[in-house]
Write a structure and sequence with these properties.
This protein is mainly beta. The protein contains one helix and five strands. It is elongated and about 40 Å long.
């Protein structure tokens, strides 16, 4: 499957909530036409809040979490991966 040979990447960025959501759309997409996005909304993220976006990619998958600054728990968590072609 294409994209499985990518090196593991780690990303941690600090943003305001609206900016982080725009950046989430730019995460490295799996290199496959067939993809799956799993998203969990675990808590509120208020407009204007300072947030931290963490993302890890290994192989054909990207896992990410959006946390409020100062909180280690993800308010929004997800996984974006290639599925069988």
């Amino acid at each position: 499957m294409a994209g499985q040979n990518r090196a593991q990447e780690h990303l941690e960025l600090h943003y305001s909530a609206p900016s982080a959501l725009v950046y989430m759309a730019r995460l490295s997409a799996p290199q496959s036409e067939a993809q799956a996005l799993e998203l969990w909304i675990k808590g509120p993220v208020f407009y204007g809040s300072e947030v931290v976006l963490k993302a890890d990619s290994a192989g054909a998958a990207v896992s990410f979490g959006l946390m409020l600054a100062g909180d280690h728990r993800a308010a929004i968590a997800g996984s974006w991966r290639a599925t069988g072609d």
